[in-house]
Amino acid sequence: MPETLVFYLLSGLAIGASAIVIGQRNPMYSVMMLIASFGALAGLYVQLDAPFVAVAQIIIYAGAIMVLFLFVVMLLNASRENAAEWDRSHPLRQPAVVRFGGLLALLLVVQLAWALLSARGLAGPVGARGGAETVSSVRVLGRVLFTDYVFAFEATSILILVAMVGAVVLARREGEGS
Amino acid sequence: MDLTLLVQLGVIGLTFFMLINASAILVLAERKIMGFMQQRYGPYLVGPHGMLQPFADIIKLLMKEELRPKGADKWLFTLAPVLSITAAFAAFAAVPWGAQTTLFGLLEEPVTLGVADINVGILVIFAITSMGVYGIVLAGWSSNSKYSLFGGLRASAQMISYELSYATALAAVILLAGSLSLREVVDGQSGAWLGFIPSWYVFLQPVGFVIYMIAGVAETNRAPFDFPEAEQELVAGYNTEYSSVRFALFPQAEYINMTTMAAVATDLYLGGWHGPFLPPEYGWIWFLLKVGAILFAYIWVRWTVPRYRYDQLMHFGWKWLFPAAVINLILTAALVLYFDA
Hints:
The structure holds two protein chains of two kinds.
Chain A: H1 2-23, H2 27-47, H3 51-76, H4 95-118, H5 132-136, H6 138-146, H7 150-177
Helix pairs in contact in A: 1-2, 2-3
Chain B: H1 3-37, H2 53-63, H3 74-91, E1 98-101, E2 111-113, H4 121-142, H5 146-177, H6 182-187, E3 192-193, E4 197-198, H7 201-204, H8 206-219, H9 231-234, H10 244-269, H11 283-302, H12 310-340
Antiparallel strand pairs in B: 1-2, 3-4
Helix pairs in contact in B: 1-10, 1-11, 2-10, 3-4, 3-10, 4-5, 5-8, 5-12, 8-10, 8-12, 10-11
């Protein structure tokens, strides 16, 4: 029973914080709420008997990526964004674009509903279905990552490397031009 | 309630109490050692030899008025010191500081000396300490002051840069120990080589130890890497606008972070509570001695080495420390594979 309570508490926190991220207008608060949401997610991972994934979530997302977000927000000194005036000439306000966005949102809702409905038949938490050992042990996780999923792993590494090199190239071009 | 649980709760309370005291003792130790290094006595008026100076400091800070700049962000300005101190205390939760003990046969099941024994303990400590940067960054931003903002910006850049070297140095020890649990890492260092060299990982990982210590100084924002609060250029850096208790929480968090850093170094490299002459039940004495020695080294470095320039810090972190840590990690991995096979 306390576990269920904690689950609903963490889920509520994650959903509430995420709603605030998109709902309010101070970018600094958005970043903080996103961190809170990640923290709640990490708590959910702990409940699924996956402490390593939980800690990785905190280290990578809450600890590193969000610091960069914060850094950028601070560096640009982005203040409160005020409600934009209705500008019909803005390209994003084109009826075609708005309709396309609406279609995508509808698709997302349908997908979510489908996922939730198909998950209804699953009994018990993930950990109870024999998945616990495969997720919780770092040793097993590492072995699986470097054998079964080695292609995806290396491909992701190269992808990140490409992004990094691209960022460096883009950042340097301006300096050399002058 | 059964006795084991009570004792465990007592141990948790004791850990918390020791951490609070650690910051007070460190403040005094820092001022005294600094004084002696500069050939003066340091604080001398409150109590015998100025030993009660921390109490005077705390009472003075409690009496001060709490100010908040008009343009400051109300919520984040209050939240920042709380985040700092929470992260500092929470990080120590995963640090064991003594062998499991039955209190001389008083208990049936042994209790853990430490708050929690987590099987990914090293990563938990790393994760929580990396959250500590938010306190500093938010303090800098929410104060709505240029000096504070620069302090916060520097803190975030510096901590991201040095976290990498720090984590890579840790990874080499994890490879040697084959475990992410601090307790197992410490137990892997019991005994001695050739009968007299204690089998501590510092002898297998001398480069890693040095990298860890340097990155640790940078992570805790201590001189010579104290750019977030460089007083000659930024007044007081991120905590310029703070006063009273809110201000007091920042140095306290810094000193507790130092203690955590030293305790983790002790567990990872210096054999934790293992040492000659003392029976295992008294291992925590060794632990305290080693932590004290590392903290003394921290203070020693602070009052010996002048502050770097900011670009030198980044240059050093990315072009020297991090490559050294990576090479150390790769070499360690190769050697572990070679000797295991």
